[in-house]
Amino acid sequence: MRREYVRLMSLFLLLMLTQAYEIAKQSCWQASAQNSFKVSGGPNVDVFTQRGGKGHAVPSPAFCPEQEIILYANATYNKYPEQNKYVSFQIFYPNKESFILPATTNETGIAVTRFRLPSLECPDEILGIWRLISTVNIAGVAANDTLEFQVCWNPADIDHDSDVDLYNAVSLLTVYGSELESEGYNCCCDIAEPYGKIDLYDSVLLLSSFGEKLG
Ligand SMILES: [Ca+2]
Ligand SMILES: [Ca+2]
User: Fold this and answer.
1) Which ligand is nearest to the CA of 62?
2) Cis omega (within 30 of 0) on the bond before 61?
């Protein structure tokens, strides 16, 4: 009886150790994957908003008319922050017209600027995909990063067909539980705080707008 107990305990411990090893291996892999982005050498800039978009050409979750957008550009050279660098944020409306916002990097290499989206008076001008290119000259080289974000009348209208219906609910449910950098994460479904994960708050926001239509 005692021998059986010891055998069971040994098996249990072995399973625990195997699992711990797998978790540690996974964390190391994730850390090295994250670092592989951070350690890219030479001149580098990453533009993102207060809602997301970290990484090169990574989109940000959507915004609505009249909301304020805070733009960040992280400028580095061989991983080290580039201070006092002029950064240009060129922002393109869905109709391709553009304007430029300038900013300068601080001691941590980050430049910040902000602007407020117009109201919904002219929907054709502001609803759709906005694009942005951030450029900074580091060591004589123009480094840049791009970012896209949707401007929607209602963030729950995930497919942008002017109503919040079952298709939007299904889209959200298929990626429910996903997080930034995990497989299946879709920033268009990340419609509520906390941004970077698709959870109950996103579902509640969608359900609270269910059935609404534009106009
Ligand atoms: Ca980015
Ligand atoms: Ca969210």
Assistant:
1) 2
2) no
